[in-house]
Amino acid sequence: MSRILWLVLFLALPGDAFAQTIDLGGLIPDGEASTTGRIVQLLVLLTVLSIAPGIMIMVTSFTRFVVALSFLRSGMGLQSTPANLVLISLALFMTFYVMAPTFDRAWQEGIDPLLRGEITEEQAYERTTGPFREFMLAHVREKDLAMFADLAEESFGTSQADGEIELRVLIPAFMISELRRGFEIGFIIALPFLVIDIIVATIVMSMGMMMMPPTVIALPFKILFFVLIDGWNLLIGGLVRSFF
User: Fold this and answer.
1) Are 59 and 132 in contact (CB under 8 A)?
2) pLDDT of residue 163
């Protein structure tokens, strides 16, 4: 019935209505420079939105958080608890907490003036990436940065002077530095649980319980140990303080 109604309305429309076209010129301000600027801004916005998850991983503290939380779950012997969605959401909001000053500076110095038309796209790019560049330089290892700087000089023939390090050199160096720190924290997290596993396995073997998997007995003790020491508070607090 509804299809018939739509068909009747379609046929009842006057022919002049179909001849009308949309005036695209009214959607974009006059002037070639203004039109080009709007198009460039739209393309940049769509590009940033499409690669936003990758940017979040590359230039923020997200990598260290998610690696440490993954080591925690593996060390406790839990396969799917907490769920991946919970761990990633927790790491994401911890990243927002740590990166809040950087995000605010990038918005106030780069994006907001660009939207108001006070600066050009090139100036907005420099001002937006500046806070992230400072954050990465503050936490990257000198050894990793030097390695990628040497590789860039060998491969591209470009030297990285102090204060003028390119993002294509700084970002991978920062990422492997964060992976290293994440694994270091993960080792510290997993060590107490490994001790519990060894103790439980020794007791089970000494009692002759060959058919009983030690992990089944050790799991409740590891959970109890983590709860008694207020592990979530210690872990999250330590991870956040590692950036300050």
Assistant:
1) yes
2) 58
